[in-house]
């Protein structure tokens, strides 16, 4: 490949913007929450007396595996990798229906629903911010280099 054909990645210059750092921290906290919840369900499924042990173990393992997406995205956001914004946005979009269902509950789950909704909306706002987008090297529509 010639130099003109080789795609170049933009060099990230300067310190990480605070908004991007906040988005990475919130994404990491969501991942940690999923991992802790998964471990808790797994332990309770194995050590406790669940109605369906297999279902509890499956849910625990699923939550632990799902925690990998936001944790990897947070790591990428800290390192200012452009690929990391997509998984983080996906995590926030998936968190909103979870928050809504918790808000519909008539129990102690309502504060958890509020916290999840606030974190998801705040992270989405931080991730689509122009400062964070530029720091990640993401170009908007129409700003892509000509592919000749």
Could you write a compact summary of the structure shown?
This is Integral membrane protein. This protein is mostly helical and 148 residues long.
Characterise this structure:
The chain is mostly helical and 148 residues long. The protein is 69% helix and 0% strand. It contains five helices and no strands. Helix 1 (18-47) packs antiparallel against helix 2 (53-78), helix 1 packs antiparallel against helix 4 (109-128) and helix 2 crosses helix 3. The longest helix is centred in the first third of the chain and has 30 residues, at 18-47. The radius of gyration is 19 Å and the shape is elongated. The two termini are 14 Å apart. The model is unreliable at 5-11 (pLDDT under 50). It comes from Streptomyces sp. R28. Keywords: Membrane, Transmembrane, Transmembrane helix. This is Integral membrane protein.
């Amino acid at each position: 490949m010639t130099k003109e054909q080789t795609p170049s990645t933009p060099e990230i210059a300067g310190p990480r913007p605070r908004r991007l750092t906040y988005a990475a921290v919130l994404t990491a906290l969501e991942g940690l929450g999923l991992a802790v919840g998964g471990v808790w369900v797994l332990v309770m499924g194995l050590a406790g007396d669940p109605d369906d042990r297999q279902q509890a173990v499956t849910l625990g393992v699923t939550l632990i595996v799902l925690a990998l997406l936001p944790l990897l995205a947070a790591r990428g956001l800290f390192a200012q990798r452009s690929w990391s914004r997509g998984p983080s946005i996906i995590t926030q979009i998936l968190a909103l229906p979870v928050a809504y269902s918790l808000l519909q509950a008539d129990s102690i789950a309502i504060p958890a629903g509020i916290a999840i909704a606030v974190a998801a909306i705040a992270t989405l706002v931080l991730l689509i911010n122009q400062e964070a987008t530029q720091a990640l090297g993401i170009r908007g529509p129409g700003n892509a280099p000509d592919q000749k």
